[in-house]
Amino acid sequence: MSRRAALAAGGAAVLTGVAGCTALPSAPVRADQADGEDDGPVAVASFFSFYDFARKIARDTPLTVRNLVPTGLHGHGWEPNASITRRIIEADAFVHVGPGFQPWADRAIETLAGDDADTALIDAREGVELVDLAASLDPDEEGVGDGRGQDPHFWLDPRRAERSVANITAGFVDLLPEYADRFRTNADRYRRDVLRRIDADYRAIFDATDRDVVQLAAHNAFQYIGARYGVRMRPLVTNLAASGDVKPADIREAARVIETNDIRYIANGVFESRRPAKQLLRETGVEAYFPVTPYAGVREDWVENDWGYEEIADNINMPTFQVVLGNRPPEAAGPDGWADRWRNFE
């Protein structure tokens, strides 16, 4: 047994002892999630957004990038089984979101340190300026959720996401210095052609509206967009957990915001419960809800179409913001058939 394989076996046992061996939910195994052997160096990522950045940076190099999170699941709020730690230990690099957001990833990093594993750690959040959790809430709600902390969902802001691209690039250059020029060229192209283009498109969408509030039937994951583009993002679930409870007071406050601002359409998280959104449809003047996502997970059809951060921004979040901000009617917001497919989606 190789040293790395031996460490993997031991690390798996440690994770099982700390977190319990929770089986992964049934999900198709895609090319980005396969456990098969790779001929060259491998980097694994703890979160979809950074997996997507990493694979774009590694294009045309021997480095293979794999996503650890199964299709259909969030990158947080789930407990992987011990095989995930084995995959991290067996990889050459581990791209993660920094401490405090994914407890399973934090435990895996502790296991790596304790076993003196040689997997390179790449913190995609290093050097990113975070905002307070309550930054986009009304002033009298500063205590809602964990107002003492900071919001980790920085990657929704494409300008902050540029720092992640730089962090991942630096990690890959350290890992494979002979491909430094290719990594840097790919990263520069992605920042220029994708992230800055998305930033400009978002800016145009938010500059075009007279509305200064968006009501979300979703958890508190979108305030970086509000902070960047000057719109208040009103989450129905005011904590960071996508599975957080919706209280009657939350519904009442959302109803007040909807009535005060004459809101016809709201946004709902693709991977979150539809029940609160449907309740708002029944009890307020809202006509429909449409999809948003913090890029925390992917649907099977998105994987089949090779959608990444860019395609999800273009085909999910941007059309919905056009609608909920009142810039365009649903039928004109996205590609042909978008409104029919996503109106009150199940």
What does this structure look like?
43% of the residues lie in helices and 12% in strands. It has 346 residues and is α/β, with parallel strands linked by helices. The chain has two domains: 3-124 and 157-192, Rossmann fold (3-Layer(aba) Sandwich), CATH 3.40.50.1980; 208-342, Rossmann fold (3-Layer(aba) Sandwich), CATH 3.40.50. It has a four-stranded parallel β-sheet with strand order 2-1-3-4, covered by helices on one side. The longest helix is centred in the middle third of the chain and has 28 residues, at 180-207. The radius of gyration is 20 Å and the shape is globular. The chain starts with a helix and ends with a helix.
Shape: globular
Determine the strand fraction and express it as a percent band: 5-15%
**CATH C-level label of the largest domain:** Alpha Beta
Order of helices and strands: HEHEHEHEEEHHEHEHEHEHHH
Mean pLDDT: 84
CATH architecture of the largest domain: 3-Layer(aba) Sandwich
Spatial extent as radius of gyration = 20 Å
Organism: Haloglomus irregulare
Protein name: Zinc ABC transporter substrate-binding protein
GO molecular function, one term: metal ion binding
Keywords: Signal, Transport
